[in-house]
Specification:
By secondary structure, the chain is α+β, with helices and mostly antiparallel strands. The chain contains 7 helices and 15 strands.
Length: 280
C-alpha cells in the first residue's frame, strides 16, 4: 500500500523540489493518517482483466471471444470462428471500436455538414447519415482479400477490448435515396460512378442539389462530388454503398427587380454625397 503525503513547507526556491512524501506500508503496520493523504492500493504485478471481442455475421461460429494474447489480431479471431460461411462477403470486415473522441453530438453534426456540405434537413432525411453522426464508435474497414493473402499485412490489426467484427452477406446491391424520382435499390455494376445509378433511379428532381451528392460506403466513409471549373466528377460506387442526393437549401434567393436595383443605386449615390460633404 502506498501513502502519498503532502509536503507542508516545500522548498519552492529549488528546481525540481520534492512535492510529496511516499510511504510504503502494508496492513500489518499501524500508520496514523493525516489530512489530505492519498492511499493507493495497487494491483498484483502481471494481473490483467480479461478482454473480449465479438464477431458476428456470416462466420461459422459467431459470438463473444476472450482475447488470449496481448496482441491478438483479426485473422486469429476469424480462425477461431472457423472461417466464413459460403454466403459471406469475404472481401472485407467492418470493426466497430469504442469512440475515444470526446466531441459532442452537435460538434459531430456540424463537422458532417461542413465536410459534406449538406444542411440539417438533408441529414434528417437520411437514416444512414444520422446513424454515422450519432454512433458512439469508430467504423474501421479492413481489406480481407489483402489480409488473407498475407497475414503480415498492415490490414491484420491488433484487436482492442470491446471490438465488434462484422462479416456481411455477399450482395451486389446499391441503394439510391434522396432527391431522385424513384428512390430504389439497384444491382451493382463494377466501375460505375454515382451518376450512372442516379440515372437508373429516374435522375435528379428539381429540388435536388446535384453538387451535394455523396456516396456512403459500407465502412461508413463518404465521398462527395468534386468540382473543377464547370465540370463535376462523381465518386465511384462499390457494392453495398448508398448514393444520397440532398435537397436544395430551403432559403430561397431573393431576386432584385430592375426597379429595386435602381432605388438601390440611387441610395448609394445619396450616401456617397453625404460622405463627400462630411470630408470637406
Amino acid at each position: 500500500i502506498e501513502i502519498s503525503r503532502r509536503i507542508k513547507n516545500a522548498n519552492v526556491d529549488q528546481i525540481n523540489h520534492i512535492e510529496s512524501e511516499k510511504i510504503i506500508t502494508n496492513l500489518t503496520q499501524n500508520i496514523s493518517l493525516q489530512p489530505y493523504d492519498y492511499i493507493i492500493v495497487k494491483s498484483i504485478i502481471g494481473y490483467i482483466e480479461q478482454r473480449s471481442v465479438i464477431i458476428n455475421g456470416d462466420v461459422k461460429i459467431s459470438g463473444k471471444f476472450i482475447l488470449q494474447k496481448s496482441e491478438e489480431r483479426i485473422l486469429d479471431i476469424i480462425n477461431r470462428a472457423q472461417g466464413f460461411r459460403a454466403s459471406a462477403d469475404s472481401s472485407f470486415v467492418t470493426i466497430r471500436r469504442k469512440n475515444k473522441n470526446n466531441a459532442s453530438l452537435k460538434d459531430r453534426e456540424i463537422l458532417f455538414q461542413r465536410v459534406l456540405n449538406i444542411d440539417t434537413d438533408s441529414i434528417e432525411a437520411n437514416k444512414k447519415l444520422q446513424y454515422e453522426i450519432y454512433k458512439n464508435y469508430e467504423a474501421i474497414s479492413v481489406n480481407l482479400t489483402k489480409l488473407l493473402k498475407d497475414s503480415s499485412s498492415s490490414e491484420n490489426l491488433i484487436l482492442e477490448d470491446g471490438d465488434i467484427l462484422t462479416v456481411e452477406k455477399n450482395n451486389n446491391l446499391v441503394k439510391v435515396s434522396g432527391e431522385v424520382y424513384y428512390p430504389t435499390t439497384l444491382p451493382f455494376v463494377n466501375g460505375r460512378s454515382a451518376k450512372y445509378f442516379i440515372k437508373l433511379a429516374g435522375s435528379f428532381m428539381p429540388t435536388a442539389r446535384k453538387s451535394g451528392t455523396i456516396v456512403i460506403y459500407p465502412n461508413g466513409k463518404a465521398k462527395a462530388v468534386k468540382r473543377f471549373l464547370f465540370f463535376k466528377f462523381y465518386p465511384k460506387v462499390t457494392s453495398k454503398s448508398e448514393v444520397f442526393i440532398p435537397q436544395k437549401n430551403k432559403e430561397s434567393k431573393i431576386r432584385t427587380t430592375p426597379a429595386e436595383l435602381a432605388v438601390f443605386v440611387s441610395a448609394l449615390g445619396v450616401i456617397a454625397n453625404v460622405l463627400i460633404n462630411l470630408i470637406k
